[in-house]
Hints:
By secondary structure, the protein is mainly β.
Amino acid sequence: MKIKLILALCLLTGVVKAQEKIQYFRPNDQRGVNTFETSKKDTVPFTGLKAKVGGNFEMEFQGLRNFNTAAPATKTGFTGNINSLEPLTNGFALPMANLNVDAQLADGIRMNITLYLASRHHEDTWVKGGYIQFDKLLFLHSDVVNNIMKSVTIKVGQFDVDYGDQHFRRSDGGNTIYNPFIENYIMDEFATEIGAELYYHTNSGFFVMGGITNGELDATVVASTKTDSATHQLNTFDPAFHGKLGFDKQVNPDLRVRVTGSVYTVHSANSATLFGGDRTGSHYFNIMENQNIANGTVLSDANDYSPFSGRFNPGFSEEINTAMGNVFLKYKGLEFFGTIEDAKGRGITETAERKATQYAADLVYRFPEGKENFWLGFRYDSVTALLSGYTANVTVNREAGSLGWFITKNIMAKAEYVNQSYLDYPNTNILSGGNFHGAVLEASIGF
């Protein structure tokens, strides 16, 4: 199946001449850094159907160490101490690769399909999702509609939910070009859901977006047999709603200012995955895991039994009500990206919402002026949350320093030193007194 798919895509590029000049498009290389929503600048003339087949590939060398102070524990069905951490050594991690297919279908209409060719979480080829984006509706032959569409963008399909701005800067399987660090946020807000988004842009820099999705990563048409503990009714799969209000403007040649606020809400879901929707996995490997549990786990299409090493999922699988504020400031080569997030939610067996908060700040300096193909960066990220069944909050803190080099616009190398600590976990939890630290090197290609 994989071979047939790849051959079909190769034939497509032979029939339709591959080109980079696609309208309203975010490049897969260095030119896409610090691009968020695509703009309404109509800079590419339409000359007919075009297709662009691109890809991403990354490989990394990990040199991390871990420790904890959790009390020894046993578990039925498993041998040994399930609270001991896997011993780590320096070595290469599993490489990841993406395949990107973009097509210009008509003037102002483009399509995207992204495939995960190989990743840590799913080793087989998976379709991440696909969508169609309308920036013009010329087929309606209406001057009124054409004038409206000068400020409007419509996206329909299965796509990255545009909640917050961090998902534009994260690593996504083999695509690590946009991320100046190795990993994503501790609480990683990312999911691909089926739905639609509508954007309205103004010339002053203000924009607004409203969206509706199915609220699920894995769509289903099978009625639920589970009862919601809060409503005492059979679970229903309500639509999820999200929105964003923002300002993004190049104030002068040296200064860019972007400020956004986002919300996402779903009140009943089969399995909401806004904080756990990544089908590729973390870029830190085996850092806070237990070998005895791994030995007793039956693996299926996964590189290990815990693909999200170093991340925190609050477990809001039934209901989510969350808001995020982001600030992005760029003065010449100096960038600041800040995040404040307040999330509430619960699982289907819970009757009351729990809370999780996240604060993060990235400071990145890119140089030399005009090229910005080198950078130095520092990130601080902190999550505090109440887990299901716990009576007190737990906290996870991360400090990371990075340096990187765009050798060409398509080839990137970066190095990071990270220190992550787990606070206030009970000593019965494997993360109690937990810490991992060390260096990770990564090479990445995007085209």
